[in-house]
Amino acid sequence: MGKKMTYKMIIEDCTKTDSCTQAELEALISLFEHNAKQTSGTFARKAWFDLTDFAIAKQKGVDRFSLLLMREQANGKEKWIGKFEYGSKHLKIVGVLENVMPHETQNHDLQK
User: Fold this and answer.
1) Cβ-count burial of 88 within 10 angstroms (0-12 exposed, 13-18 middle, 19+ buried)?
2) How many domains is the chain partitioned into structurally?
3) Cα angle value 101/102/108 (rounded, 5°)
């Protein structure tokens, strides 16, 4: 039986306007990670999301934002760029999805 690939997001850069709160920043980073992981399994290079469609965004108070998610190749790596906007609030996140070994494999390698 094949093992499911698991990825974690490594944030390389994050720039925001001063009007974004820390709580908004944390919620938007979480939504960026989630949507990049979901989109990575498709051929899409660009996707736009209206966060009113996400229940978690409403719970976190960021449902008025929109997200433009882009996939780019740079130096042999696939980078994800997320641009969130709502009025005067802007947040840009750049990240890379890295493969994480399944837990069983990690333990097996340690026993060798």
Assistant:
1) exposed
2) 1
3) 90
